[in-house]
Amino acid sequence: MKAFHKTATSEVGTSDAGIRRWTLNVALTIGTLATVCFGIHDALQHRILPALASLLVIIIFSLMLLVNISIPRFRKIIDTGFVALVGAVLLALLATQFPAPTITFWCFTFPLLALFLLGRDKGVFALILSFST
Question: How far apart are CA 45 and CA 29, in angstroms?
């Protein structure tokens, strides 16, 4: 009975890595769905460049989600890539102040994301890299 309980618990993934994985999958899914909505809106407004940018982000997020689910050995690369992509997007939005000056508040979520997904040491390095630019 104990052996079954141990294998069932390890498959569920109640560790920190399992929680991080689940959180990243949810974030990628929400990001993909939100980008689909914004891409459709841009396409209906006949704005080609933002619609193409949305399509590119949809493809990247979908690939990251599929690789994160199906190939376990790439999970650390996916974590790092997701944090780098979100950091680059937030820095671009902060530099352009698009769509409104309140975008600054969204940049406060980046430290939490970096520290949670990458851990303390790599997260601090990502923060230093992000805030030094």
Answer: 24
**Phi/psi of residue 99, nearest 5 degrees:** -90, -10
Determine the pLDDT at residue 33.
92
Instruction: Give percent helix, percent strand, percent coil of the chain, each to the nearest 5.
Output: 85, 0, 15
> CA-based diameter of the chain, in Å?
62
pLDDT in tens, 55-87: 998 999 899 999 988 988 888 888 888 888 888
Taking only the tens place, the pLDDT of each residue in 41-55 is 989 999 898 889 889
Please check whether residues 59 and 106 belong to one and the same domain: no
**75 and 68 Cβ atoms separated by less than 8 Å:** yes
Amino acid identity, position 81: G
Predicted TM-score (pTM) of the model is 0.67
| Domain assignment of residue 23, given as a range | 14-70
- Cis amide prior to 99 (ω within 30 degrees): yes
